[in-house]
Amino acid sequence: MNLKNYSVIFLLIISLIFVSCKSNNKTPQENQKPNIVLIIADDVSWDDIGAYGHPKVKTPHLDQLAKEGMIFNQAFLTTSSCSPSRTSIVSGLYPHNTDAEQLSWPLPDYKKTFVQELKNAGYWTGLAGKYHMGDPVRDDFDSLLEMQWKDAPIGLDRRLVGDGSGCDEWIKLLQERPKDKPFFTWLASFDAHRPFYEGMSKDPYNPEETIIPPYMPVTQASKKDFALYYDEISRMDDYIGKVVAELEVQGVAENTVVLFISDNGRAFPRDKTTLYDGGIKTPWIVKWPAKIEPNSVNNNLVSSVDIAPTFMTMAGLEPLTDFDGVDLLSTLINTKISVRDDVYAEDHFHDFEDYTRAVRTTKYKYIKNYYPDLPNTPSADIIRDLTWKSMKEERDKGTLTEAQMRCFEIPRPNEELYDIEKDPYELNNLALNQDYDYVLNDMRIRLKRMRESTNDYLPTERMPDDFVRETGYPTKYRIRPRPSKAVYMKAREEGKVLMNPDFVETISTE
């Protein structure tokens, strides 16, 4: 064979290689199932992140994550209570359908999770940090580096491991994972959960530079409280930077989805445990270099109940038919695509009895208070700390504004309606304003439709508070941890109401 023929054969081989590469221009990493990293903050509001415009809180790593990925401006949680929010996320169900809707109730073993589905499909699954979902879910994780709690008096920190952030084991989990499988990791911070401590940060915030929402008084105590809260956010942000760097070192960043959210809003009055935006609106930042355009902004409504079906779709799986959420993949790829007209949120027992529902569009919020005779008391850890104590002092002096008195108000309004675009802090209730009758009726219909379609119902009895609303210290009903919903249901069938394992009384069934 002469040189000319060799040249023709060589060019033919090169052309075939080029055509083959062009027909499948994805890298080997892109042909694999994507890795998924879910990072969950604890008690952090959406607007306390630099990427969302906060001028004082330093979150350089989250800000960079937003620049390299997509930031959502209309992202919401199904509830503003720690464990119900987490069990809702992992199960893809609204809290009332998880059978774990009250604080510290475990997700039952008959409820499926997206983590188990990923594991069954060949993913390695791991969790590091805060857990708080109940024993049955533990088996869904191949590795569980759970932050432990020590026995300590109410009001004192019970964090046991490392620096108390819950983030210490994040990198260890990523490094110890098997390298021959796609992976899912649930990285859960304790920051910024109460109690807060001075001296935790090497570069503490100046209380005089804090920004306090108008529904809380600006006092020396509240400014100090917010500064300590900011400290914890920045500490968490440092760990997030380490996670992103570790993914780069391992060479998997290109095909790894990183989603950052919070389980509920900041642990301050009228935020956590409420259905105002300070409680249920969440930071939502996602980075996926293989699919998402950098520096993207998404203004579509999304809910944390949508995470489960979305992650399963990303992994090439069919979402479970039981899921209450919707798949968000289309709006991740094209921000012009909207997948929701509204979001639904609920409030159940969290230290104190309550039952409240809300529906939110991009413009309006409607809240239905089913127990208006109960005040909108924040969680017990908030009551025992600085801001609430200063609010009580200002209340007793008569210096609180009408908005700042809302947590003490008895009775609460049966209905609340807010124009979020005009009134972002939800200070002006429009439910009795006749100019908004059409909006109010529309929101009522949305709420009714959601309750009927998801089988939401009002309990037949109320639970006693675990804490004293004025002081935040335990009542007699908190002698032991509260039993699960299954125990309550069994007691109800027997014509009893079970307050705690040591207190049972017969009730009328009429």
Automatic annotation (TrEMBL):
InterPro entries: Alkaline_phosphatase_core_sf (IPR017850), Sulfatase (IPR050738), Sulfatase_CS (IPR024607), Sulfatase_N (IPR000917). Keywords: Calcium, Hydrolase, Metal-binding. PROSITE patterns: PROKAR_LIPOPROTEIN, SULFATASE_2. The keyword Glycosyltransferase does not apply. Residues 34-316 form the Sulfatase N-terminal domain. The keyword Flavoprotein does not apply. One of its GO terms (molecular function) is metal ion binding. It holds the Pfam family Sulfatase. Gene3D superfamilies: Alkaline Phosphatase, subunit A. Belongs to the sulfatase family. This is Sulfatase. It comes from Seonamhaeicola maritimus. The lineage of its organism: Bacteria, Pseudomonadati, Bacteroidota, Flavobacteriia, Flavobacteriales.
